[in-house]
Write a structure and sequence with these properties.
four-stranded mixed β-sheet; about 55 residues; globular; alpha+beta
């Protein structure tokens, strides 16, 4: 499954193929560590077969 990591206005979103939002952060609360932890959690659910495309 493919996920997009995108910035819209002052928010960071992880969305799936049909724009289903899996996680969202306000830009002031966002950290790379939170992103990496979320990626690990999503990959765990998809047995490491998730693909992440970062657009910002």
């Amino acid at each position: 499954m493919k996920f997009k990591i995108e910035k819209v206005a002052n928010m960071i979103f992880i969305t799936a193929d049909q724009d289903i939002i899996f996680k969202a952060w306000d830009i002031t609360e966002f950290t790379e560590r939170k992103l990496q932890n979320t990626i690990k959690k999503i990959n765990g659910h998809y047995n490491g077969k998730a693909e992440f495309i970062r657009t910002f």
